[in-house]
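Can anyone check this?
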Amino acid sequence: MCTTPTRILLVDDHAILRNGLADMLRREQSVEVVGATASAAEALDTLEREYVDVVLTDLRMPDMSGNQLTAQVRKRFPGVKVGVLTTYHSDEDVFQATKSGAMAYILKSATVEDILEAIHNMRCGGTWFPSRISKQLMQRLSRTELSAREMEVLRLAATGLRNREIGLELGISENTVRNHMVNLMDKMGTTYRAEAIAMGIRQGIVRLNDEDE
């Protein structure tokens, strides 16, 4: 049984969100906030020095993504459970987080009660995914995954580049770009280029900007 307070580490580059959540959780007897860091590097340093049960990490940070941090923690500190706390929830965001080893996917709109439930579930070896997120993950897993090159082609197409321009950007022929486009549209179940781009944006494969959380 997980009866002692769960020792948690918060990782978020936004000070207001990070400190606000830390203050709220410090009022709870069932958890102990070991630290609240602004970067992945700080988090890894803290894990070297402190015993931590659960890490809650943002997805987008300046030095390392939350998914990269999750993979690092799972590799270097296998006893530590990691959950994502984010505002982003596209199919691809959810898929990549779980692929990296996240055991919970918590939206920043969640209640403190939900966050605590997720923390304790992870501490005791379980997972925590709201029904909406679970449904997205199942839908994403049911689709054929695009190759790295196909995703590059789709992302460049979304910027408005034509096949010839994409080929020059990637160092491949225009015909090869065309073949990649045909293949990715087939995998996505789309008929037109614009439809594939729109679906890529909706699913989180393509991003229109690089804004942080």
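Reply from J.R.: I decoded it. The mean pLDDT is 89.
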